[in-house]
Amino acid sequence: MKLHSFHFSPHGLARAYSHLVAGWRLCRATRNSLRGLIPESVPSMTAGWNFFRTIRERALPPPATILDIGANGSQMALLLKMAATTDVRVLSFEPNPAVHPMGEVFRVALSDVDGSAELILPQGDSLWGTISTARVDSKRIGAGQAVRCARMDTVVKNGEVRFETFQHPILVKIDTEGGEKRVIDGFGDVLKQVDMLLVEVDNKVAQGHEYDIVSLSSFLSSCGFIHGKVLYACYDGPSAPSYMDVLFWK
User: Fold this and answer.
1) Domain boundaries, the chain
2) Fewer beta carbons below 10 Å: N end or C end of the chain?
3) CATH topology for 5-249?
């Protein structure tokens, strides 16, 4: 995790403390070490803890397969794995070659089209990237590089990913810095095989996204994901949350 000045603000420090408490609770409940998760997984700890709690409280079977889309360095997957089966299979989809996620790694930017896209690497942060120009401050746009872009149903049709070999429940986590709805659209009929979705939903209208939490929830409900829970909402003082981690399941 790259540290920025806002991490040392009163709000940032309070947020980090609450994440660490959540991470400590998760590690204590699952008998894992907290030390190896610091600092990279700290911002994901509240969502990870609440995912574990939701699985327990709703008596949901733990995931046996995790598809981590927008994996980065597997910061969230490390936490989700704690709530999964002991032999969970992890597939990581991450186009940025500068990061090295866990499990079976696919260097592709999943979206709703096939072809190529420009992976934008903001200035001063080569470990973060997006193919959504609306997600990056124009003053911070740095180097870009061409990456493969593909729909999930195309990847499945080509035999690169074989859903028939996956154990259920299948959890799909999507954090693609603004392109989450396009990733979901790219699943097509393959979405029917997914049991749970964990989606980061951006809440900044100024970034020009084509969906929000209401439209996404309505769409996923029509696809059979009739249950949902907000696992984390990122507040910065009195402002509305900048993003939310939301779990949907059938």
Assistant:
1) 5-249
2) C
3) Rossmann fold (3.40.50)
